[in-house]
Amino acid sequence: MELGWIDFSKSEREKILNVLDLLTEPGVLDELGIAPIRDGYADLFFPGTSTIQTRAKYFLIVPYALKDLELNNEKNYSKLKKQLDDTEEKCARILLNINFRERGIIGRRSIASNKWIKRTPASIYWAGLRRYQIFKAKMSIDQYIKIIAFQKQNKSNILKLGNRNDENDDQDDKDAGLSQKVHLLNIPHYNSNWINEFDMNLTAEEGQFLKNQIISSCGNSMMAHILKENMYEFLEFNSFRDLERIIDKFPEKIQEDYYRAKSFSEFIFVLRVIYNLIVSENANEGAKKEFALLKPNLADIANMNIEEIFSSLKIYNPHLKTFLIKSRDLMNDEDVEGLKNIIKSREVMLKGENRSKTAHPGEFDKNIWFAGRYLDYRFHNAKNIIRDIFESETPEIIGKYVLEENNSEMEGL
């Protein structure tokens, strides 16, 4: 069955796109449908992050911009929505004027073309703002802006009613109280002139606030533990796999999840290497070299408790589970042809014959690598955010750690 796009409202489309952000590696299609496990572990280790977040500052820029909407005199929902979009674009332009080479500015290429992006920082960071309890409700940005508009309109109407009929003062006061009850933003000291004074770096107050929010809302996560214990050495590593060198410093539960996730990443890498061998008809030199290194260790890599992974992550996906168990058995038997067949079948089931690359081997550039490599579980995005927080506290220590470029900054969209 092929899936098509249903033309929902703009807000509904944004909700769907936000979910997709959380389910994708930058620039990588989920050819084998392993997203539930990949994202389950990413949410365990680095909750509130997504693959298109760039810098920690946006966790404050977005709430500040929303606070502006709360406090100004505009009551029209559409105009409030436009004001938020304008503020985010203005922030990008200010940051680029301060330092054009500043990393992580969302919309850099679009602004260079005198355009603005469709996916704004507010939509990119919204799930994280909710996860960290910086925004204290389960609703969309659109719903919140509608509430802001409703509050202002309701207050205005109540004041008008009160002026016309002083006998209803008690009821008016009650209604006015109701109209002011929704206070959902949780942010540090707010300065109405913030947009003219900010840069991409967190202030000490902002860094401490964000650190506390992550620790209090995600206390059992790897990310919270790194921040709570000031594990600056985390910034020395270049991949999720490298964390094995310090994993013994984490609580036992995190260690257990880490080793499961690392084993799963290695297991999936084997399947991805074979995927590239199929698509290239064994002509991709990189895939051939990787497989030559992996082949002697296939049985060890296959020694993985798939059932335990599904149980610990509370995932119910029988088709994925069956695919992984069969792949594990074939890997144990070093049955490469069997692995090729099951990979082909899996992709065709997910995407259909026409869109499946493995169903059309030899039709693609043999030098291009498809389907990703090792899983990093949003490690790089989390590393940038953690670095920004640490740097706000101890810039003299953190300055030596290089901030990583995020190649999926949603620029030009």
Q: How would you describe what is shown here?
A:
With 413 residues, the chain is an all-alpha fold. The protein is built from 18 helices and no strands. It is globular and about 70 Å long. 37% of the residues are buried.
Q: What's a quick, concise take on this entry?
A:
It contains 18 helices and no strands.
Kindly state the percentage of residues in helix.
Answer: 55-70%
Average pLDDT works out at 86
From N to C, what is the helix and strand string? HHHHHHHHHHHHHHHHHH
Number of strands: 0
| Percent range for β-strand residues | under 5%
Taken from the alpha-carbon principal axes, the silhouette is: globular
The total of helices stands at: 18
Gyration radius over CA: 25 Å
Regions with pLDDT < 50 over 5+ consecutive residues? 1-8, 13-27, 158-180, 407-413
Largest sheet: none
Structural class comes to mainly alpha
Measured distance between first and last alpha carbons: 29 Å
Ordered list of secondary-structure elements with their pairings:
Layout lengths: L9 H13 L12 H11 L12 H14 L5 H22 L9 H5 L8 H11 L9 H24 L4 H11 L24 H14 L4 H7 L23 H28 L5 H10 L3 H5 L3 H8 L4 H15 L3 H16 L27 H15 L1 H4 L15
Features:
single chain; 413 residues; mainly alpha; 0% strand; globular; disordered N terminus; disordered C terminus
